[in-house]
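[step 3/7] inverse_fold.run input=structure_tokens len=161
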């Protein structure tokens, strides 16, 4: 069990990409460079997204929550990517539909149980359009970090086994 790593270095603003694969490569490479995930993480997360889409139609701003198996992770991390332009992701639970996503919450969890708890907490955040619009429009990584820490109960996640 480890604490969640979440600071300005894993918040990427103005990510330029032409496809979901580009987005996932940029975001996961950032985590590889910081040794938060293994070299196997980028291809694993792209493959997982192909098999199980994670795009979510939410109020105001569509989001995606890509994640993959725990064996590719060195340290529990959440990376937030705000895209310069929308990129189509498959809709979760519907392999025929796509949705233009502008905020990506890339999850690197080192325990399957904590991944589920974090997903549940993120779903609550996604129901709040004001929070999503704040993340989308804010150019200050520190205030985005502060907002996410306020909305997510990191302490509860750290206490899990």
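[step 3/7] decode complete -> sequence:
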């Amino acid at each position: 069990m480890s604490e969640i790593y979440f600071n300005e270095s894993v918040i990427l603003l103005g990510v330029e990409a032409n496809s979901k694969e580009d987005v996932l490569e940029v975001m996961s490479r950032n985590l590889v460079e910081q040794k938060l995930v293994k070299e196997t993480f980028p291809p694993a997360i792209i493959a997982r997204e192909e098999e199980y889409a994670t795009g979510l139609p939410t109020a105001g701003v569509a989001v995606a929550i890509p994640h993959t198996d725990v064996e590719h992770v060195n340290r529990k991390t959440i990376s937030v990517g705000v895209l310069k332009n929308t990129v189509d992701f498959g809709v979760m639970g519907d392999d025929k539909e796509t949705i233009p996503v502008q905020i990506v919450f890339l999850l690197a969890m080192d325990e399957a149980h904590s991944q589920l708890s974090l997903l549940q907490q993120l779903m609550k955040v996604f129901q709040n359009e004001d929070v999503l619009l704040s993340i989308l429009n804010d150019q200050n990584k520190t205030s985005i970090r502060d907002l996410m820490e306020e909305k997510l109960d990191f302490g509860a996640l750290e206490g899990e086994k």
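[step 4/7] annotate
The domain at 8-147 is CATH 3.40.930.10 (Mannitol-specific EII; Chain A).
The chain has one domain: 8-147.
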